[in-house]
Amino acid sequence: MSPLPDPFAVTERGVTEARPAHAALRAAGPLVRIDAPAGGSAWLVTEDALARQVLTDPRLAKDPALAPEAWSRIGLEPTAAEQTSMTTADGPVHAGLRRAHAPLFSARGMGEHYDRMTAIARELLTEVADGEVDLAVDFATRFPVTAICDLLGVRDYGERASAACRAMFTADAGPAFGTFMELATVALTERGDNLATALRDRLPDGTSENDLRYCVFLIVFAGQITMDSSLGFLVAHLLHERPDLPDRRALDAYVQQNLRLHPPAPYTLWRFTTEEVELAGQTLAAHSPVLVDLAGITLDPDRPEGPDLVFGAGPHFCVGAQLAQLLLRAVADVLTHDFPAARLAVPFEQLRQRDFGGTQGSHLTALPVRLRPDGV
Known about the structure:
Blueprint: E1 11-14, H1 20-27, E2 31-35, E3 41-45, H2 48-56, E4 60-61, H3 91-101, H4 107-111, H5 114-127, E5 132-134, H6 135-138, H7 142-151, H8 158-167, H9 173-189, H10 195-200, H11 209-241, H12 248-261, E6 271-273, E7 277-279, E8 282-284, E9 289-292, H13 294-298, H14 321-338, E10 343-344, E11 352-355, E12 363-364, E13 368-370
Parallel strand pairs: 3-9
Antiparallel strand pairs: 1-11, 2-3, 4-6, 5-13, 6-9, 7-8, 10-13, 11-12
Helix pairs in contact: 5-7, 5-14, 7-8, 7-11, 8-9, 8-11, 9-11, 11-14, 12-14
């Protein structure tokens, strides 16, 4: 039997090529033992029904305190006891945080900001509209963090926040995190009514200032690293396929189609069993690490019809899903109506994508575009 591919390998491939690990791991069964990047073994869920079971089972928690003792804490968030957050809390604590976030990030709540999102997309694209430009560098990275900073009332932090997002995966993560804490402090104390202050007023009583700043950090960081991935693919497909997108319904359908083809996160964040758990005929010991293969399941040609797993499922369904979809719709809207002559500067088939490993989505290595090829 051939060894299973490493789902965390850094690879590069053509824009139309599927990530090879997904199909091979899916063929190995609904629950597959894999080597964990931090050492030891872990379990990967590759089947839709089992994924939904795992994502709703309270015996699989997100608190990094449950990680195997042999794991280093590199790449893991602080434990739930050290830092209360949406991404590491479970049960009633998570439910309270979610109740605070949900109305602000609902379709209605985010929809109030749509005109501003399109204005920012138009502004940033106009800045680079002359000649050939690499939108993977000059737009896909900048737009989501600029729009999110605008919602937080700290638009002037856009460039610094974008650089800090990139630095979070390097040795400069400490200073980068300091930038986010500064941004959050300014948003909460100096800029009046904005998304950060609205969230502050909704969070459970007793939420510390440190926890509140961390909530603001997650809004910026999670929004940037997921949208950075998705935006490049959306623009590439849009300029290659030239779809007819006459109204909001068509725009939304096109965005959804591209999210399914290029999920912003290939896997969930880590979950850990709180006790011995039986899954798919396997006995998982307490503290076993578990991931759900969101991309592999969503792209499975044999997956039953129904809701996809692009943004997960269950109590931890991505609270920023509506923000993500509105940001992508804004870009499609502006490109379609403001830059109707825009085109790729290379054939679509020549575009390349890179997998960075772990839970980061794939990114285009470059996206050369001429927004105004006629010079107008």
